[in-house]
Amino acid sequence: MTTLRLRPEGPADEPAVARVLAAAFARPDVATPPEVGLVEELRHSPAWIPELAMVAEYGGEVVAYALLTRVGVRTDDGRVWPALALGPVAVARHRQRLGHGTAAVQAALDAATELGERLVVVLGDPAYYRRFGFGPADRLGLTSPWSGLGEPWQALVLPPSASEEPPPPSGEVVFPPPWSRV
């Protein structure tokens, strides 16, 4: 019986991840979707956290991908606090609607919680991301270049590693340079 295997991406997975991203984000007006380049650039940036680039493998094939990378929250006093951005998330077309994307996202969020991360932002379909606990980012006082898009701009507060941890800060979410090209 074939089972879904969830694990961090390794160097040998890069071509398969690129194929899944290219198929999931294919558009007739571009040869290669920008999400493929985004992941490649993030891999070579300080935003990359190897343990949080999660693949779902089925029958030896990478069929889903969920990526969390470092962003910051700039507070009113100018300090920048660590946070994470979720995306891109992609599933091979022939394995969609089977729970593989959900499993990859949950595995990435679980790994982030284990690392002591507290805040994740995402721009995406509220109906999909609500299942993980995401809600409107503006309710947490978080702004970004995508705030004006309304409901798709979402955030999730992860469980604290210690009960006395304060809630994550509010402020402007600052994305690393590769995100500006998407």
TrEMBL record:
<dbReference type="InterPro" id="IPR000182">
    <property type="entry name" value="GNAT_dom"/>
</dbReference>
<dbReference type="Pfam" id="PF13527">
    <property type="entry name" value="Acetyltransf_9"/>
</dbReference>
<dbReference type="InterPro" id="IPR016181">
    <property type="entry name" value="Acyl_CoA_acyltransferase"/>
</dbReference>
<feature type="domain" description="N-acetyltransferase">
    <location>
        <begin position="4"/>
        <end position="163"/>
    </location>
</feature>
<dbReference type="GO" id="GO:0016746">
    <property type="term" value="F:acyltransferase activity"/>
</dbReference>
<keyword id="KW-0012">Acyltransferase</keyword>
<feature type="region of interest" description="Disordered">
    <location>
        <begin position="158"/>
        <end position="182"/>
    </location>
</feature>
<protein>
    <submittedName>
        <fullName>Acetyltransferase</fullName>
        <ecNumber>2.3.1.-</ecNumber>
    </submittedName>
</protein>
<keyword id="KW-0808">Transferase</keyword>
<dbReference type="InterPro" id="IPR050832">
    <property type="entry name" value="Bact_Acetyltransf"/>
</dbReference>
<feature type="compositionally biased region" description="Pro residues">
    <location>
        <begin position="165"/>
        <end position="182"/>
    </location>
</feature>
